[in-house]
Amino acid sequence: MQQLRPVAQVYLAVVTAGALAALVAALAVIAGDREHLRVLAVLAPIFVLSIFLKSRMTQQVDLSANVPILIAAYLIGGWSVACLVGISAIVLDRRKALSRILFNNAQWVLMGLAGGLIYETMGGTSMQTVPTDGFEAALLGPIVVSIIAVIGINAALMLGILAFQEQINPGTIWRSMVLTSVGPYFAYGLLGLLMAVLWSIGGGFAAALVLLPLLVARRAFNQYAEQREAYESTIRALVQAVETKDHYTRGHSERVSRASVLIARILKMRDDRVEALRYAGILHDVGKLGVPTRVLQKTGPLSDMEFAAIKRHPRNGTEMVRGIAFLEEAYNGIMHHHERLDGRGYPLGLAGRDIPEFARIIAVADAFDSMTSTRSYRGAREISEALHELENCAGTQFDPTMVQALIAALQLEPWTVAAPAEQRQVDVELGAPSFDHDDPAANLPTEPDPQIAAEAELAERRNQRLLHRRDVTRRGGWS
Amino acid sequence: MRRTWIDEFSGGSVLVIAGGLLLAVAGIAATATQPVLQPQIALAFGALIALGELVRVNLPGDRSAAPLGAAGGLAYALLGDFRGVDGDTTTYGVLQVVAVSAIAILVGAVPHMAVGQPPRLESLARRVLIAGFAAVLFRPLYTSGYLDGISDGGWQLPAFMLAIVLFSGLVDALLAALARSGREHSPFTSAARDEFGALLGIGSAIGATGVLIALAAGAMGYWALPLFALPLVVAQFSFRRYASIRATYDQTIQALSRVTEVGGYTETGHSQRVAQLSVAVGHEMGLSEDDIKDLKYAALMHDIGQLSLTDPISSGATTLIAPDEQRRIAAYGAEVIRQSGMDRVAHIVEQQTEPFRRPGLPFDANIPVASRIIRVANAYDDFAGGSMESVTRLYALDRLREGAADEYDPLVVDIMSRVVERTMLVDV
């Protein structure tokens, strides 16, 4: 962590001092009180161990077990026990910077203090034993208010450190952190209540049982995250297999995917569709696996037969990924990424709005990356030059909306063009292929193949019912 | 491969289903003849179980689970004191637990049947049996007052309940293994190992939730049901997401296996058939669930290396080309797979070209079983294709037997003959 700014140093000192004062007061209350000590002795170790349950993926909804334990601590033992439970995790804190250790642990103490004090002030009773007048009415009010206090303290303290040290705009923090954390916090509060209820019925042993389903949930969640990562790398391996066959496509799929996502963001596409489009971009050329390597790597002009083989790749690709349920909308993008707005593209010769949106996006991204990459028959073009060429072809080959969206996106985001391909041994021996059919300037024959068109028409119909699909993608959350 | 006597019960599922059915009928019949005790509680738990059945989830490893329903059944079996009913205690017996569970499970299953996705009968039967089993251990002791001494808020009652739940879980795993070994023709021991492994996952959350609901109901009454079911709902949600990404992964590997077919390198359906046959043999050989998964993936992708070929080989039959060429193709395929992080699968694909034994040398124990299985299954499919003709099939098996001992692992050939002959009886 970089040096603390002076104002942040003062802030940290105040927060730490507050937490220390709370701890001293808590110790004074608790000393010699066996009941309190017993609660502390059970909850503090669980709290410490919960630190290890931190989720691996920070972007994911975090099922923290610490907050429920802290809430249970003040429900059962009052604010003093909560403060001491809150500080207990410092023994295993592995953070590097002292300032972070101090701040984070002080935060736990102050959250316990605030929640506990509010709960008691509101007339909430200790849950050491079963409340005589039942759980419902007497407890719910104080609990809800105390949880709001815990959220408030958490938010205020974070707001402070982020504003003073990292100089992040408080409005941003409010939206991205506080608002999204209200839901999870009430779930934590409920879990804390459950632990406390169990404590009153069966003691610490029963209370700890509440965490078991949570643990299992977390494990399943981690498995999910792991599997997702594995999934990503499998897709990548598939794409690399294409790229070893076709010299031009090294890194191409990845860049087309990125450019497609940029366009989609400008169009304000829904998140789950953007995710599908991302995959569609990565996989748009996967059908080249079905084109004989001899044809892909051929030097010199292609015969009609050979060109027909290349033109089959969108259909091949669709054929391959069919059956992957969550890519349903991506099929269209893969299938039609070589259609032209004027209807002279392939495989179906669709025109205008009949071309699916995904395909119109990928077509632009595809051509853009091809033009900004080095080819044996020409050097890489400048980005501005490529965009100009796209604008020239807008209306005939490309959808002008998508071209404009790409231009707009590139003004907001930097773009790294393909690295010039190093001369490969194979290329030296055999000569590199002499054209790239993704390149709009390569002027290829563009008549749709009637037989392919008829077959693809059938496939297309099967694809038409697939617009909306279930989201299996990442959901951002508070962590 | 040693096989135990219990393997001969190829109708393990039938046994479990019959047991569950018998118990359910007995429970419902007995309960129908007398008034239902604490009917509101029965209704509340029946609703919970039915709801759980309604939102059941298919977990990886071909497991149909209804965590919420199972936990509800356990909780109803373990229910002691209940705040808000007459005398704050429950008095119903084992058979009422069985009856309520069975009826609720059926009610929850009806919508699934209506949309044409009937749940596996064996898993329904198991849930009835387990609720009954836990009830037998708990209810007589509770209703006759033996547990009064430990119902004072100490750790003993929770611990006792937890022990019952653990025991029930073990029995459930055994029943599931019995059904699985029958279904997959796998040895009972390996099926049991897989089921115990699965028990540690969502099973522990189910058990804990059952105990928690039962315990908390003493102080909270009906509130305990929704409140303590909530963590399990969260868990189930996570499992559902995991199951869905696993399914996506599976579909993707299947798609990958079609790549060589679309490219005209291999015959349509070859990889799928090799995978099916390999998995069937793997089950019979008692491979663990993880090993089966790797075997399946490797079999699906065993020909992916052919993509490196400039020209497709005749009908994609790798058995018919020179060993060195086979090896080169396999090595390339393994390289592609390794890039996706599936090292074990890559190794299996790489080793599938190794003959079982080189003349004059002892057999190489380092070749994974999965590779040996795929080698035989691949050869069988190259000889027989998808043919259902018994003449073709028997011819292919004869060719394999000729190669057994040197080219092919004799044990694998043996088991594969059995698998092929078994399916022949059905198909022809």
Distinctive features:
heterodimer, A: 479 residues, mainly alpha, Arp2/3 complex 21 kDa subunit ARPC3, Hypothetical protein af1432, 2 domains, 18 helices, 0% strand, disordered C terminus, B: 428 residues, two-stranded antiparallel ribbon, 15 helices, elongated, disordered N terminus
Helical coverage of chain A, percent range: 55-70%
Please report the total strand number of chain B as a whole number: 2
Strand content of chain A: under 5%
- Summing up helix and strand content along with how strands pair, one would put the structural category of chain B as mainly alpha
* Helix and strand run of chain B: HHEEHHHHHHHHHHHHH
Query: What is Rg of chain A?
Result: 30 Å
Q: How many angstroms separate the termini of chain A? A: 19 Å
Q: List the total number of helices of chain B.
A: 15
Which stretches of chain B of 5+ consecutive residues score pLDDT under 50? 1-9
Low-confidence stretches of chain A: 55-61, 423-432, 443-449, 455-479
* Strand line-up across the major sheet of chain B: 1-2
CATH architecture of the largest domain in chain A: Orthogonal Bundle
Mean of all residue-level pLDDT scores of chain A: 79
